[in-house]
Amino acid sequence: MTRRSDIGTAVIGSGFIGTVHIEALRRIGVRVVGLLESSPGLGSQRAAALGLPTAYASLAELLADDAVHVVHVTSPNELHHPQVKAILAAGRHVVCEKPLAMTSEESTELVDVAAASGLVNAVNFNIRFYPLNQHVASLVRDGGLGDVRLVTGHYFQDWLLFDTDWNWRLEKDQGGALRAVGDIGSHWLDLTSFLTGRRVEAVMADLTTFIPVRQKPAGPVVTFSTERATDTVPVEIHTEDVATILLRFEGGARGSVAISQLSPGRKNSLAYQIDGSASAAAWESERPEQLWIGHRDRPNELLIRNPALMNAYGVAAARLPGGHVEGFADTFGAAFTAIYDDVLAGAPSPDRRYASFTDGHEEMLVGDAVLESSRTGRWVAVDRPS
Ligand SMILES: NC(=O)c1ccc[n+]([C@@H]2O[C@H](COP(=O)([O-])OP(=O)(O)OC[C@H]3O[C@@H](n4cnc5c(N)ncnc54)[C@H](O)[C@@H]3O)[C@@H](O)[C@H]2O)c1
User: Fold this and answer.
1) Closest CA to 288 of 307, 274, 268, 308
2) Exposed, middle or buried by CB within 10 Å (0-12, 13-18, 19+), for 55?
3) What's 97's DSSP letter?
């Protein structure tokens, strides 16, 4: 294969994010050859709606199709491990949505299987691929902020604010033991480790469930839907709505992050500030075209995303000239461009800027430390067995 149009990709799941994957793949010139849904009926319906040629009846049928070289997994979290394992066993490159798995035992296995296969393996921590975040990552690596000292921020949403708000993520057996931290906090943690080049060493975490009983609709629910169902059953909730976490990063930097799915008015607000010994950088996902750069001895700067003004990595992730606003869906195209360069090369590159299974596993290990810290009320070191 020499061109992206030689590559055939199948997508598992066509809900909120699967649809974004399909659109981004088409935009970068990859052929989306089919999809797999939870049932053949839904698959046919969604394939017709999205203009896809094939709705596979099962994962086995999908993997038997020689036209499929890469598979994107955008199903609910509990399905990631078994589906990814089968995809790698069938010799296909794989792009999996976050979180990589339900537990760090599962993600350990996936890291090992992926490494043994030599296949391209990616976890879709897409927020790395806002052009200004790529710019910041290089700025930090080039010493542009000086020594990184303090990393602070939040990830706030409001779509689970009411006890009538429902989604599969609320149920431990489908979403995992961590909810707000696993679902959105993992993005913040991956992003700040990527930007600073430092992993989290230890955490002190406080997790809270403000809504211990929710009204589960009797029928199916679409992600981010705010419609109120009338026919509901009360269900106890055992995952956190809110987390506050103190962080120690490698190299001595300190940090803190607040994570909430109950913050009224914040639809999808990820914010960070990185304070270095020379300058600071701050960014927020609801204003993704602006990067604040703080100085002590000269006026602060506001860099508006612009290929003419960013470093090479910022430029590589950008599609449009400055002032022509790019956003969430564009990050998928930028991430997939980097991932499919490796697909064309046939193997993962050592200097990749997209998140690999190792990075996805890293967030599962940080999640384990967060859970243990919240249970014990103590600082917990991230346990990375050698
Ligand atoms: N990177 C991001 O920004 C981002 C954003 C949203 C969701 N996600 C991740 O994407 C995944 C999906 O989330 P979503 O919000 O799109 O959920 P969703 O509920 O909107 O969509 C899930 C889809 O998977 C399908 N599905 C369920 N069981 C299946 C099966 N056995 N086989 C095939 N398909 C099946 C459902 O029918 C649905 O179409 C989750 O892991 C989530 O964490 C990532």
Assistant:
1) 268
2) buried
3) P
- DSSP state letter for 126: G
> How many Cα atoms within 13 Å fall on the side-chain side of residue 359?
27
Phi, psi for residue 74 in degrees, rounded to 5? -125, 30
Q: Convert the pLDDT of each residue in 336-385 to its tens digit.
A: 999 999 999 999 999 999 999 999 999 999 999 999 999 999 999 999 98
Contact indicator for 368, 182 with CB cutoff of 8 Å: no
DSSP string, 186-224: HHHHHHHHHHHT--EEEEEEEEE-S-SEEEEESS---TT
Tokens 């009224």 found at = 264
Q: Which ligand 1 atom sits closest to the C-alpha of 18?
A: 16
pLDDT at 385: 80
- Going by C-alpha positions, the residue among 225, 211, 232 that lies closest to residue 161 is 211
Q: For residues 377 and 98, what is the distance between their CA atoms, to the nearest angstrom?
A: 27
Q: For a pocket test of ligand 1, which of 75, 78, 126 has the largest count of ligand atoms closer than 8 A to its C-beta?
A: 75
Residue whose token pair is 């057996």? 173
Ligand 1: lining residues by beta carbon, under 6 Å: 12-18, 36-38, 42, 74-77, 79, 97-98, 124, 126, 183, 223
